[in-house]
Amino acid sequence: MLAVCGLLLAGCSGVGDGGHRAGPSASSAAASSPAAQRETGAATARLTVDPARVPTTPAAALDLVRAVTAGPDGYGPGYVKRPPYQSDPADWPVLGADCVWRQESLPDDVLATFTRYSRLPAAGAKGEVRTAATVTLHRTVAQADWEMAETLEEALRCPDQQLRTTERIIGLNSMGSGYGTNGNTSADDYLIEMGTYDNPALGKGSTYYIWNQVRLGPVTIAVVVEGGKGFDQSDLLTVQARAVAGMETKVRSELGAQK
Question: How many CB atoms lie within 10 A of CB 108?
């Protein structure tokens, strides 16, 4: 995972201050990603799991995603719970045609989804970092594949997005990497999005916004990192990669996974 982040960091110079990512465009990345291959029915899972350990009911699925979703200890020293610490499992975020995020009811193809919110409090010259980890279990691999593709398409459709009343993402760019490309050797599919983040609660001026999402069979894992004045982009990418890798390990363990 860190190898992928290193490649993307080199290819994303300027994203942090509102510039555009160099290298392959999000559209070309989407075209080559396994997520985009949904049109041909080519969604695959390199992850071999024990079918008896894959939940088939919403209740069992919720138990699984709760067990693997990262809390403060998933990011490193100093992180604490951020209220509200846990999401309502009945909610599903949807990006509207107006590029504003809203909560809607859980779609039929999702067995369960769960989010935990954490933060690194401001200290000295360093500003507060806010994080969120989300794990979603879909009913099928193909449906999880759709979620990855839609996430890529959202950044193309809405490079500027309204998160909440006073929180905005600006200049969002995406890159997708299938297994074996750009250093991705751990997940069936991988994507990362970067932009700038404006939130008056964290002070004046923009900070970094980084979203990382991976797919392991029917499971998607996502971590967002927001803010952190005074932090290098590489520091935040390392924190994010640590949380994603930890959740990948837990998913593999819970599902009896083998490559």
Answer: 8
Residue with tokens 């991705």: 184
Alpha-carbon 193 to chain mean position: 8
Q: Which residue type occupies 98?
A: D
Is the separation of the CB atoms in 186 and 248 below 8 Å?
yes
Burial of 41 (0-12, 13-18, 19+ CB in 10 A): exposed
Please answer whether residues 128 and 64 qualify as being in contact, where contact means their C-beta atoms are separated by less than 8 angstroms: no
Question: Domain residues of the chain, as ranges?
Answer: 2-254
pLDDT tens digits, 103-146? 999 999 999 999 999 999 999 999 999 999 999 999 999 999 99
Tell me the pLDDT tens digit for each residue of 233-249.
Answer: 999 999 999 999 999 99
CA distance 141 to 162: 30
DSSP code, position 128: P
- Would you state the structure tokens that stand for residue 252, as one six-digit string? 């593999």
Computed on alpha carbons and rounded to an integer, the radius of gyration of the chain in Å comes to 17
pLDDT digits (tens, 9 = 90+) for 7-25: 343 333 233 332 222 222 2
Tokens of 19: 């510039």
The string of DSSP codes covering 129-198 is EEEEEEEEEESSHHHHHHHHHHHHHHHHH-SSEEEETTEEEEEEEEEEEETTSTT--S-SEEEEEEEEEE
